Amino acid sequence: MLKTAANLQNLGTETAFDVLARAARLDQARRAKGEAPVINLGIGQPDFPTPAHIVETAVKALRDGHHGYTPAQGIPALREAVAADLNARHSVEVDPERVVVVPGGKPTMFFAILMFGEPGAEIIYPDPGFPIYRSAIEYSGAKAVPLPLLEENAFAFRADDVIARMTERTRLVIVNSPANPTGGVTPAEEMDKLAAALAERPDVAILSDEIYSTMLYDGREHRSILSYPALKDQAIMLDGWSKRYAMTGWRLGYAVWPEALVESVVRLCVNDHSCVNAPTQFAGIAALEGPQDAVQEMLTAFDARRRVILERLNALPGFRCVEPGGAFYAFPNIEGTGLTAKQAQDRLLEEAGVAAIAGPSFGVHAEGYLRFSYANSTENIEEAMTRIGALLETL
Ligand code: PLP
């Protein structure tokens, strides 16, 4: 019998990947029987291809011989492009030396949590929220302190709720806006209030997951954690290319770190993956510096789908859905159907051929909800809602 480390048991997962695999198997079975394919509203990734000029840049980088290791922190030109993009979007000056490029959004959260988490420490994280936060906190041995996000507050977090959970043992606070799985957007005033409270606690770091910061609707605005100079030595700002440029499979992300932590995080990179593959980093420069029309077109499409799914979800018996302000998720309350979230997830998939994800995959405060990703065609969204409506009639 092998003896693995005890904390391996504490590692959670992201159910979206299991649902994706189940949906794929069921899809094959349905097609073999001549039934309509599964409509996947489970996985959170844009259904658009990566814009062509980005792909071409990566191909050219390979042809030009960029086959080797790069600096672990990321190619300087890429880090400079990130700093310029942050300046353009958030009107902030960022030293490219504080930018650390990693394979996707996830490594930043894992590294940040491992840096601060250990037995005796506490880390506050959004619930419902991206499941990797809790998983990594528990793996680190720290106490995971959920910050409940409420439907009645359109799933924005409230600074007072964060502050109320802070203790002497708090080492790290994680926030995410626009949010997965709810599409919730936290207003600037709440960010201001939280920033002011954190400035009084220089021993507490904040990880602000801003991976959906370009995906906001109806004129909503994003307030980056980078806009608070007082938090310069505490704030870790996570962002990346996956969602904004439809690049989930490329594995490219970054964070802006407090200066004092850069050396440690680069060491973690050297220990873990050495560097992001070189052609992807060149693609990342092309994405940031090239034309943004494709990004705008995707956003316009997501917004149109958002309106469709919101209206159709609210018309389903037993469903009610608050308006998501960002990202590409809707998070309806389904208590009125009489089904638990898991029952609804399973029946939607098996009987209606629609993949969605049960709320409890995202936290202990998410029973009674389902996550739908509307990164799918309007036609598929309409068809999925029709199928769910028909299933609910039979309950
Ligand atoms: N942060 C949030 C809130 C996410 O929803 C996701 C992906 O779904 C990530 C980070 C991870 O992104 P990546 O695929 O770039 O690792």
**CATH uppermost class of the largest domain:** Alpha Beta
Compute the separation of the termini in Å.
47 Å
**Low-pLDDT residue intervals, each spanning 5 or more residues:** none
**Could you spell the SSE succession in H and E letters?**
HEHHEHEHEHEHEEEHHHEHEEEH
Instruction: Name the beta content range.
Output: 5-15%
Could you state the oligomeric state of the chains shown? Answer: single chain
Structure write-up:
The chain folds into 2 domains: 7-49 and 293-393, Aspartate Aminotransferase, domain 1, CATH 3.90.1150.10; 68-289, Aspartate Aminotransferase, domain 2 (3-Layer(aba) Sandwich). Helix content is 41%, strand content 13%. The chain is built from 12 helices and 12 strands. It is globular and about 60 Å long. Bound molecules: pyridoxal-5'-phosphate. Pyridoxal-5'-phosphate binds at residues 44, 104-106, 130, 176, 180, 209, 211, 240, 242, 248, 253. InterPro entries: Aminotransferase_I/II_large, AspAT/PAT-like, PyrdxlP-dep_Trfase, PyrdxlP-dep_Trfase_major, PyrdxlP-dep_Trfase_small. One of its GO terms (molecular function) is L-aspartate:2-oxoglutarate aminotransferase activity. Residues 37-388 form the Aminotransferase class I/classII large domain. Belongs to the class-I pyridoxal-phosphate-dependent aminotransferase family.
Topology (elements, then pairings):
Elements: H1 15-32, E1 39-40, H2 52-63, H3 76-90, E2 99-102, H4 106-116, E3 122-127, H5 131-140, E4 143-148, H6 159-165, E5 170-176, H7 188-199, E6 205-209, E7 235-240, E8 253-256, H8 259-272, H9 278-289, H10 293-315, E9 329-330, H11 341-352, E10 354-355, E11 357-358, E12 370-373, H12 378-393
Parallel strand pairs: 1-10, 3-4, 3-5, 5-6, 6-7
Antiparallel strand pairs: 2-8, 7-8, 9-12, 11-12
Helix pairs in contact: 2-9, 3-9, 4-5, 6-7, 10-12, 11-12
